Amino acid sequence: SYELIQPPSVSVSPGQTTSITCSGQNLGDKFATWYQQKAGQSPVLVIYQDTKRPSGIPERFSGSNSGNTATLTISGTQPIDEADYYCQAWDSGTAAFGTGTKVTVL
Amino acid sequence: EVQLMESGGGLVQPGGSLRLSCAASGFTSSTYAMTWVRQGPGRGLEWVSSISGSGGDTYYADSVKGRFTFSRDNSKNILYLHMNGLRVEDTALYYCARSTGIGVSDPSDLWGQGALVTVSS
What pLDDT, in 10s, does the model give residues A21-39? Predict the structure, then answer.
């Protein structure tokens, strides 16, 4: 099965920029999707098709995908961005989620 | 209001069966692919299964293939996840999610609150 690996956690100060990586074989040849999940809540779509933001998602969220790595970047991180973030992609008729990254805003 | 509401969760013994339902409201579910995603206690998200808008195509994770069946009744706007041969490791909160389009690989932009399934003796 397809594996997507993320760092377990990242810490960031308010107002700073943080990036979360998602590594998978030839991930750049697929579309990467990113979900945000706050404690006790259902996931929310924040990035799809590598770089696109759904309506209502702040511009500080951006994405890229190339080679074996997709990246979610949060510019000017806010305390409300503290959450778990998961990447996701499809490969050979099955979907895979990344291992998840906990973003802590200190 | 556009929403998804899961039901049917509960406590079941290993080897038992359960049927989850996902009721869609505020939109016509037949025009969207749908997905089940689960999250074990303290664990990350795990894709379980996806179904095309027509219901003609279904896809399953290896961990549930042959045991779970995803179906939909578009006339009632309800989706079902039939779970047989349940194992302790199937214990999780099961989310129903709507894709942005008819393709199963389209991202999910609407999620329910989840139904809790506990498999234990």
Answer: 999 999 999 999 999 999 9
